[in-house]
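Bump. Still looking for UDP-2,3-diacylglucosamine diphosphatase structure tokens.
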Amino acid sequence: MQPDTASTSSRHYRAIWISDVHLGTSGCRADHLLDFLKHNESDYLYLVGDIVDGWQLKKSWYWKQSHNDVVQKVLRKARKGCQVVYVPGNHDEAARHYVGLDFGGIAIRREAEHTTADGKRLLIIHGDEFDGVIQHIKWLAYVGDSLYTVILELNRGFNWLRKQLGMPYWSLSQYLKHKVKNAVNFISDFEKILAGEARRRAYDGVICGHIHKAEVRDIDGILYGNSGDWVESLSALVEHADGRLEVVYWTELQSAPEPTRRKNKQSAGVTPPPAGQAAATQPAWLPQPATPAMLTQADTTAQLSDPTQETPCAS
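Sorry for the wait, here they are.
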């Protein structure tokens, strides 16, 4: 089903990170990503791995027109001057054979570095290199991937029923991730390991994907950012003109009649400082309490127009 959207003007960011799109699977929300790419421009666009799901495509071919439209849209952005960097992940690891090459204006790199507007050096890496299961028990990773696919199928049917009853979208996989102790511990350990790697290599922070959990936070003085996924959370990480990073969401069709960006969790969770205390203690890359990044309804509605329509990468 296509998202029902209304027209809106484009928003411009200095940089956008997206990951874990999983083109080539039925779970990929390509229509929503295409909508996001049309109405959100940037000087830099980083594709942080698992953009195409080679694991699933090896089992059975699945490639809708909307998946092709996403690829064409990214290529079009590169032609218009956007600096596009593709850092392959484990699901699209075949692309790692082409590291160092440029295709259609898209630079393929094993990892990348980004310097924010306020001078912070960020390591950009998918993150599977620090997943012990992927590196040492790959057969178990394949089993887990198959189970995740089954959960998504069950979730789709369950949410169809919830929608008929007028209930909002609910994610079974996200629920399990947050309730199962081992999964929670894995996510926490993963984030700390990535932050530690950034510190070891003298970076100010790290941006990754892989675990499908969008986040931007400080871990012992190191900026940790994760761009989430386009299977369930429909999220991206963006850099504003002042160097501040923020997670933005594109609400799924099941949970709202129109796809809208939800208020950033980090913005919502920031508590203003006590009276008399300077707000400067808040890390620069986190949303500032005095001006939470809330989007108006006019900004959060978008129209899925003709995929062939060209939109400049930068305003």
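The mean pLDDT is 76.

Edit: fixed formatting.
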